[in-house]
Specification:
The structure is a homodimer. By secondary structure, chain A is α/β, with parallel strands linked by helices. Chain A has 11 helices and 12 strands. The first copy, chain A, is globular and about 55 Å long. Chains A and B meet through helix 4, strand 6, strand 7, helix 5 and helix 6 of A and helix 4, strand 6, strand 7, helix 5 and helix 6 of B. Strand 7 of chain A pairs antiparallel with strand 7 of chain B. The complex binds 3-isopropylmalic acid (2 copies). Chains A, B: It catalyses: (2R,3S)-3-isopropylmalate + NAD(+) = 4-methyl-2-oxopentanoate + CO2 + NADH.
Chain lengths: 346, 346
């Protein structure tokens, strides 16, 4: 019989609330014969304040035993900027080699967008997750003096670029429109830019059916607000991906519905799924957070584990739920989770 | 008697056409007693193909004699990506220490925006122009092999950050709302991020009337499309500034009306003014380009040289022209330039 052994990291702020609903929908959608085991991990601000730890080697060993990880949100104003990001979120992505950071953007019927007209938005960003300016390379000299110099080093390898570019081409090939855009800044960041562009062009030869284009990151932000329908699959560097996926989330319904997967395609390590939004401490504990982004992250998780039909059921339930929201009073976190659980079970 | 000794770099593509209109409006707005001298410089793709040169030491010496520089656009698909950018545009910014890259965003009445509703947009971005990932530091090893590694080094100095942060605070102080936002990614780029954040907080103490906030660059893209009215003055790093000013241009009427100044505030070197748009080779030579961004760059140039009344006259003429455009047939580059010249003279 089948089973899913899931690590659950509710985390900080609204993380707890939204993860509870994600798990509710997951339980409701799974067939009887699938055994779901979950184990909670108490990472985040509370543990950091209590122990000074963010993510230890023992933690990584424990997490590694799971089939996948569901994360709510990590981050709290009581912790200095960078400590949990570098000490937990990025540490986990690097340790588990989550090199494919998958972020779909789809504007669903009935969902508000800040854009005028009725743009049709349905694309997916494949963001590199283990290189670029995120490696933590760099440093500071003469800190705090008028002669301080701080550097950040973006590290890009043929190995790292090729595997994510290849993943993106395969995804583009599998979609009806078969389009792939490389987003970089190769006219200024010429060293990394040439590496990305050359590998992109090489791999393109193996996918003759995929239509490709190159776009500078600055120009891409313009197209994301003026012609978002132009995009099908986007592949990009870690930092550019961070920036454009927030913009993509904003135009396609907001971070309340933006899901993401930090994927290790080889399966050597468990992949992690999380809403794009953060811990939103200002509304934490009030039952106001929209769990939809987490529920959609559960769908990505299921698809990653091979439960395609269940993933699709969740996505359809979310579409139906969103389509009926207009004009109705706001519901609580639990109410939305309950409604989605009913729909997927039905 | 007063005089302006201007270096004119029409450049590539639509550069020629829009600069001609910029100069037309400049001549029309200047009082009789101001002597305008201009000298054309033939930089860009043509010169590169003919001589292999982009910007020589002798060119820099010649440009240095001028009071200011007006540039149309540089760039052509016939030149490999990066050659003119690094060899001309960035070389000039670095050689003339253009550390304040000023990019105002104002949504004028009658101008279309891709955003729904009627957002009120009036802010200015102060982008650092001589540091960050733009320095060209970095390199490549094992080029073209499966073991290639390419790095890009972002260099940030207390000297460089403090002067641009101070400039931005002074601009915020001089505006009615007196608000300044620092945009960075200090939770990931912790070395550079701490330098920027610490200096920002230190300088803030000297400007108690200025309200400050910090925002990650990814979150900033969300606010730029959902709450653009939130911004008054923004200060940011060279690369983040490149990205968000294109987005800012897109939401506030498009790059057809986005002006910029590459400013050396000390006056040791001439400052350069240019539209944010590029050379647009697809529409070059057809009289289709909108010269408004260049005309607004001329206004920034005049204000920089102390001709405040004339700068304001140009801005008012542009506002009036834009307000009357809705529903009218499109005009040619020359027709728009003529109309603006008549308005500023009138
Ligand atoms: C919190 C931060 C480290 C993270 C990132 O920059 O990747 C976040 O912005 C994201 O996009 O997942
Ligand atoms: C053309 C390029 C070098 C330039 C930049 O990146 O600064 C442009 O995008 C700009 O914003 O002026």
């Amino acid at each position: 019989s089948r089973s899913i052994n899931l690590a659950v990291i509710p985390g900080d702020g609204i993380g707890q609330e939204v993860v509870a609903e994600g798990l509710k929908v997951l339980s409701a959608v799974l067939p009887q014969d699938v055994k779901l085991e979950t184990k909670d991990y108490d990472f985040g601000a509370r543990r950091y304040h209590a122990t000074g730890e963010t993510l230890t080697d023992a933690d990584l060993d424990a997490l590694k035993q799971h089939d996948a990880i569901l994360l709510g949100a990590i981050g709290d104003p009581s912790v200095p900027s960078g400590v949990l990001e570098r000490g937990f979120l990025l540490k986990l992505r690097f340790a588990f080699d989550h090199h494919v950071n998958l972020r779909p953007s789809k504007l669903l019927p009935g969902v508000a967008t800040p854009l005028a007209g009725e743009p049709s938005i349905d694309f997916v960003v494949v963001r590199e997750g283990t290189e670029g300016p995120y490696t933590g390379n760099g440093g500071t000299i003469r800190k705090g003096t008028p002669h301080e110099v701080a550097t950040e080093v973006s590290v890009n390898t043929a190995f790292g670029v090729e595997r994510v570019v290849r993943d993106a081409f395969a995804r583009a090939q599998a979609r009806p429109r078969k389009k792939l855009a490389l987003i970089h800044k190769n006219n200024v960041l010429t060293f990394a830019g040439h590496l990305w562009t050359n590998i992109f062009n090489q791999v393109a030869e193996e996918f003759p059916e995929v239509t490709t284009e190159y776009m500078h990151v600055d120009a891409a932000t313009i197209y994301l607000v003026t012609q978002p329908e132009r995009f099908d699959v986007i592949v990009t560097d870690n930092l550019f991906g961070d920036i454009i996926t927030d913009l993509a989330a904003a135009v396609s319904g907001g971070i309340g519905v933006a899901a993401s997967g930090n994927i290790n395609p080889s399966g050597e390590y468990p992949s992690m799924f999380e809403p794009v939004h953060g811990s939103a401490p200002d509304i934490a504990g009030q039952g106001k957070a929209d769990p939809t982004a987490t529920v959609l992250s559960v769908a990505l998780l299921l698809r990653h584990l091979g439960y395609d039909a269940e993933a699709t059921r969740i996505e359809e339930a979310v579409s139906a739920d969103l389509a009926e929201r207009t004009g109705k009073p706001a519901r609580s976190t639990t109410e939305i989770g309950d409604a989605l659980a009913v729909r997927v079970a039905g």
